[in-house]
């Protein structure tokens, strides 16, 4: 019920080592830093030239940096880079006006970093991912393939396992996300107001996580509505729906629907 495999499909996922030798899914949070050290092969040094501000749009392709001679087609569903009139597969674009604050950053293939996005390392960003205008990645972050870190979204000490979308105004702190979609304004709160570690009370059993900062675990196919909030130490099982303006606390089994109507919470299984 509380294992990683109960929340995520981890087959062929490069971040699977987070959960090796763990009993409970939240134990993966303690393994973020070691796994980044193992995976990270920084490839942004040649983009930065010692500067944080990227002052000219650059293309990262096949281990090289292109600073001219290419065109960018942004008219389709996915941005494409053309060289001599032909699309070059696997090219990533780092737009002028974005910030790479240090060299401890890896950017995968077919990934886009938009203007004013700010990335601090250590950070691993996979393939086909969008880091949109105004996004703030604060370090100790693992982002898988085909993810979105959207406008005004802040992310720190967290994992997006893949196909994870946080398109607008989200806060993701000390959390692990499967293939989810966060509505605009979703906040995954990670710090209790009282000075003590997060504990979980699930089916009349108390779990001592030992974590002072613990946001949320969001299983595959979770959907959160706009302006929803999770309290520290919240676990949403697969296919949970958290309705707009709702606040979730504790553990929710798979396929639970969570609504808040006139300050009262209603739960039911789909």
Describe this entry's structure for a reader.
This protein has 270 residues and is mainly beta. The protein has a domain at 4-40 and 122-269: 3 Solenoid (UDP N-Acetylglucosamine Acyltransferase, domain 1). Helices cover 4% and strands 37% of the residues. It has two helices and 33 strands. The protein has helices at 32-39, 45-48; strands at residues 58-61, 64-66, 70-73, 80-83, 86-87, 92-94, 99-100, 105-107, 112-113, 118-119, 123-125, 130-131, 136-137, 141-143, 148-151, 154-156, 159-160, 165-168, 171-173, 176-177, 181-182, 187-188, 198-202, 205-211, 216-218, 223-224, 229-230, 234-236, 241-242, 247-248, 251-252, 256-261, 264-269.
Largest sheet: 12 strands, mixed
The stretches of 5 or more residues where confidence is low (pLDDT under 50) are none
CATH class of the domain at 4-40 and 122-269: Mainly Beta
What is the overall number of helices?
A: 2
* Cα-to-Cα separation, first versus last residue: 18 Å
Helicity, in percent?
A: under 10%
**The CATH superfamily title of the domain at 4-40 and 122-269:** Hexapeptide repeat proteins
Overall SS class: mainly beta
Strand content: 35-45%
Radius of gyration: 19 Å
CA-based shape: elongated
Oligomer: single chain
> Which whole number gives the mean pLDDT?
95
Strand order of the largest sheet: 2-1-6-9-12-15-18-21-26-29-32-33
Total number of beta strands? 33
**Secondary-structure arrangement, i.e. CATH architecture of the domain at 4-40 and 122-269:** 3 Solenoid
For this structure, the CATH topology of the domain at 4-40 and 122-269 is UDP N-Acetylglucosamine Acyltransferase, domain 1
């Amino acid at each position: 019920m509380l294992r990683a495999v109960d929340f995520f499909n981890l087959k062929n996922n490069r971040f699977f080592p987070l959960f090796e030798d763990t009993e409970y899914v939240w134990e993966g949070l303690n393994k973020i830093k070691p796994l980044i050290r193992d995976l990270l092969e920084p490839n942004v040094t040649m983009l930065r030239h010692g500067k944080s501000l990227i002052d000219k749009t650059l293309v990262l392709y096949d281990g090289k940096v292109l600073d001219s001679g290419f065109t960018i087609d942004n008219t389709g569903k996915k941005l494409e880079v053309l060289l001599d009139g032909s699309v070059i597969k696997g090219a990533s674009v780092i737009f002028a006006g974005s910030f790479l604050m240090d060299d401890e950053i890896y950017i995968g293939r077919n990934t886009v970093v938009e203007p004013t996005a700010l990335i601090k390392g250590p950070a691993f960003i996979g393939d086909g991912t969008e880091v949109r205008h105004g996004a703030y990645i604060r370090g100790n972050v693992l982002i898988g393939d085909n993810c979105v870190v959207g406008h005004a979204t802040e992310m720190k000490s967290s994992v997006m396992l893949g196909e994870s979308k946080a398109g607008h105004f989200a806060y993701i702190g000390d959390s692990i996300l499967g293939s989810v979609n966060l509505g605009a304004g979703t906040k995954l709160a990670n710090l209790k107001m009282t000075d003590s570690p997060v504990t979980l009370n699930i089916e009349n059993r108390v779990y001592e996580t030992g974590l002072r900062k613990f946001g949320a675990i969001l299983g595959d196919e979770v959907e959160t509505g706009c302006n929803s909030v999770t309290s520290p130490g919240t676990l949403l099982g697969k296919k949970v729906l958290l309705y707009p303006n709702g606040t979730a606390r504790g553990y929710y089994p798979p396929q639970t629907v969570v609504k808040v109507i006139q300050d009262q919470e209603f739960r039911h299984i789909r």
